[in-house]
Amino acid sequence: MKRGLGKGLGALIPTTNIEQYNPEKDTIMEISIEEIIPNSFQPRTNFDPEKIAELAASIKEHGVLQPVIVRPHNQGYELVVGERRLRASKQLGLEKIPAVIKTLTDQDMTEVALIENIQRHDLNPVEEARAYKRLIEEFGLTQEVVAKKLGKSRPFVANFLRLLNLPDNILELLENGKITVGHARPLLAIDDKNLQQQLVNQIADGQLSVRDTEKLINNSLKNKKQKPKSPTEIPSSPILDDIQERLRLKFSTKVNIKDDGKRGKIEIEYFSYEELQRIIEMLDEHNY
Fold it and tell me: What are the extents of the domains in the chain?
């Protein structure tokens, strides 16, 4: 059976290098579930059994409304998009599932799987950070390129990557939703692993707000007489990252905002006298 592809994938594909959906070319075919292997590039590792069961109940009543995406693999297919639909269909004991077959590279596979999960808010912060890292390390992409492909800012991607510097046990708490990104980010300012663990236990047990966490960490650093990291090492805030990115785009050059929590400075780089003149003219023009 062949059918036209719905709009769901069409909204996803344009953000990647994959050709945008063409109703005259793309068709849906019923293929055997046994011929489909899991997506080895899937950034998501946790799937809620209750949500899979709910989806299975919906599929039982209404059928699979949106096809999965697969690519040819050996004598069968490899899943690209639609892990939950595939799992729910298997749970129901279905033999076939509607699918669109596309020829994709490994990089395409990673990008599409990542974008789909991000758009649906299906990834936890650790899964998202690891997916960014995979795109950078396995495919040689820069943070800037990854950000552009995913519709994010470079500082946003950089901040998520920094989270991976935390110990595994703290990442596990973040992954399981015991602490938030706002709680985890200030912990990066602490070098003492024992102190770091003590604080994260208080955060997890005390249900502290992000502001309370920041105060707790600042007080702990003072009590331990631990000198805070230099302004360039202190994890920046999302607000400062956004301002830094806007200035970078405004002046078309590298801009750094250094902040130690009390004061800071803005550095605007230039690589020639002409470029310096251009920046000065822009500042004069806007009465900065």
Answer: 2-119, 124-164, 165-228, 238-285
